[in-house]
Amino acid sequence: MQTTILTDIEGTAGSISFVRDVLFPYARRELPRFVREHGSEPDVRRWLDQVATGHGAMCDDAMIVETLQGWIDEDRKDTALKALQGMMWTEGYARADFTAHVYPDAVDGLRRWHAAGHPLAVYSSGSVPAQKMFFGHSDAGDLLPLFDAFFDTEVGGKREAASYARIAVELGRAPDSILFLSDVVAELDAAREAGLRTVLVDRLEDYPQPRTGDACNGHPRVESFDAISP
Ligand SMILES: CSCCC(=O)C(=O)COP(=O)(O)O
Ligand SMILES: [Mg+2]
């Protein structure tokens, strides 16, 4: 059986600057209108109510919007925020306001591994619908058919070993037959604790100061997908 490749998105398959300088500001800007126009739809309300729960009974939509905008500013990986961001980005992709940045070497690597029979999966803090929009509307076109499975924080946090154990069960694969790619060492530590193989993707565009030696915490380090042999 071929190694399954499980990849992170931001800082690994695509640039950090696309997420932080395009996607996050777009969601921040669109949030008031989105809540006004869609806030009574059950699929939206459920997430807004989850945000409101932390603020007591007096929390109105204006306070929820302000809270969510604060969370965007601090890059909080909250499941409700990520679900709502995904819905707003879906509108943005549909209107062709932007396409998703995927590094050319990532496009080539994903295509090459898929052609060689490696199952491909995504694990990102972005919601599963946001992941599908990202790869379905990339600068390199529709990459969605390359992937077999998608996981977000509904499976658990990316720095928790139990999340990776759950992903292995859901994929029906032994942990050591899965290779996890990420730019975040703490995520790789959690994956390794669950028995997955790991590679630190240390892109100079995103991390101008290379992480070497102890900073890699024993994870093999590459600067592009070209150097990964699954
Ligand atoms: C699906 S693209 C947006 C990704 C996102 O919202 C995010 O927080 C990035 O997290 P990742 O786990 O991909 O580093
Ligand atoms: Mg990342």
Report on the architecture of this protein.
The chain is an alpha/beta fold. The chain has two domains: 4-15 and 100-227, Rossmann fold (3-Layer(aba) Sandwich); 19-94, Transcription Termination Factor Rho, Rna-binding Domain, Chain A, Domain 1 (Orthogonal Bundle), CATH 1.10.720. 46% of the residues lie in helices and 10% in strands. It has eight helices and six strands; from the N terminus they run βαααααβαβαβαββ. It has helices spanning 16-38, 42-53, 61-73, 79-94, 104-115, 128-136, 161-171, 185-193; strands at 4-7, 120-123, 149-151, 178-182, 197-201, 221-222. Strands 3-2-1-4-5-6 form a six-stranded parallel beta sheet, with helices on both faces. Helix 6 links the parallel strand 2 (120-123) and strand 3 (149-151). Helix 1 (16-38) runs antiparallel to helix 3 (61-73). It is globular and about 50 Å long. The termini are close together. The model has no long low-confidence stretch (mean pLDDT 96). Ligand L4RZE5RM is lined by residues 8-11, 19, 23, 77, 82, 85, 124-126, 130-131, 134, 158. The ligand CSCCC(=O)C(=O)COP(=O)(O)O is lined by residues 8-11, 19, 23, 77, 82, 85, 124-126, 130-131, 134, 158.
